[in-house]
Design goal:
Layout (H helix, E strand, L loop, with lengths): L6 E5 L4 H12 L3 E6 L2 H13 L3 E6 L5 H15 L4 E4 L16 H29 L2 E6 L12 H21 L4 E8 L5 H7 L5 H6 L10 H12 L10 E4 L6
Parallel strand pairs: 1-2, 1-4, 2-3, 4-5, 5-6, 6-7
Helix pairs in contact: 1-2, 1-8, 3-4, 4-5
The structure holds nicotinamide-adenine-dinucleotide.
The site of nicotinamide-adenine-dinucleotide has 29 residues, from helix 1, helix 4 and helix 6.
Length: 251
């Protein structure tokens, strides 16, 4: 993949899919800005990339805070002169597995703030920079829950359908500006977020696997491969698309 020297910001890079993506970009020679609300975790990821010969820095940034998103991107541009790739990955699940009538206000507001408004902030500021430089590639991390119904977590479902919609609408707006915007839609993938869902009941893992034709959960590294490919010039005629990585669950 042609990612050498690319300046790449990844949100939520301290854990799971974001961490695997940061490491993969690093292994391809990109300048990685690993941002996360959890600075310690982001630092660990950046250190691992640097220790294996890559180039990375850790930045604390909360995607729900517009000023912090502006600063994240402005600092990257001040230091590197441009922003080639932005991966909007930071996301959370709802704390409670409840049906719609019982869904809590807290879960609704928290999940929408990170998964939907956070992606909007990153798209707004990131695309403004890409317009200035005349090109760019953005990858949003949506979910299978953004393509199909998923019970007991309405805010998560709403936020991920929104990410798919924002991806397609913005791609339509900026196709002629040389800015591509795509999304990945992972199914159940090993990460802290999946662990939270598995902790709901001891048989949750087996229950979920019954719906996966390949019979296993995904690995964060498998999602990272698609993110890097979508971000790279290897996929340069693709925009406004979603790639589903779910072991066949959507079938
Ligand atoms: N794991 C799955 O099964 C799965 C499936 C579909 C989609 N996804 C999506 O993948 C993305 C990554 O999730 P993951 O599974 O790697 O989970 P994870 O919990 O391992 O990683 C999420 C990261 O986002 C960070 N984060 C949370 N709130 C933030 C904020 N306000 N600002 C900045 N960073 C913040 C966390 O600190 C964490 O490092 C999410 O958008 C998630 O919805 C995950």
């Amino acid at each position: 993949m042609r990612l050498e020297q690319k300046v790449v910001i990844i949100t939520g890079a301290g854990s799971g899919i974001g961490a695997a993506t940061a490491k993969l970009f690093g292994s391809h020679g990109a300048n990685v800005i690993a941002s996360d609300i959890n600075l310690e975790n982001a630092k660990n990821v950046a250190e691992k990339i640097n220790a294996s010969g890559g180039r990375a820095q850790a930045v604390q940034s909360d995607v729900t805070n517009y000023e912090q998103v502006e600063r994240l991107i402005a600092d990257a541009v001040t230091e590197h002169g441009r922003l080639d790739v932005m991966v909007n990955n930071a996301g959370i699940g709802g704390k409670h597995q409840l049906k719609t009538a019982d869904h809590t206000h807290d879960d609704w507001h928290n999940v929408i703030a990170v998964n939907q408004t956070g992606v909007f902030y990153c798209m707004k500021v990131g695309i403004a920079q890409m317009l200035k430089q005349g090109y760019g590639s953005m990858v949003n991390v949506a979910s299978l829950a953004g393509l199909k119904a998923s019970g007991n977590n309405l805010s998560y479902s709403a936020s991920k359908f929104a990410v798919v919609g924002m991806t397609k609408s913005a791609a339509l707006e900026y196709g002629r500006k040389n800015i591509r915007i795509n999304a990945v839609c992972p199914g159940f993938t090993h990460s802290a977020l999946l662990d939270q869902l598995l902790s709901v009941s001891p048989d949750m893992g087996d229950k979920l696997k019954r719906f996966i034709p390949m019979g296993r959960f995904g690995e964060a590294e498998e999602i990272a491969e698609a993110i890097c490919w979508l971000a790279s010039e290897n996929s340069k005629f693709i925009t406004g698309q979603t790639i589903t990585l779910d072991g066949g669950t959507s079938l």
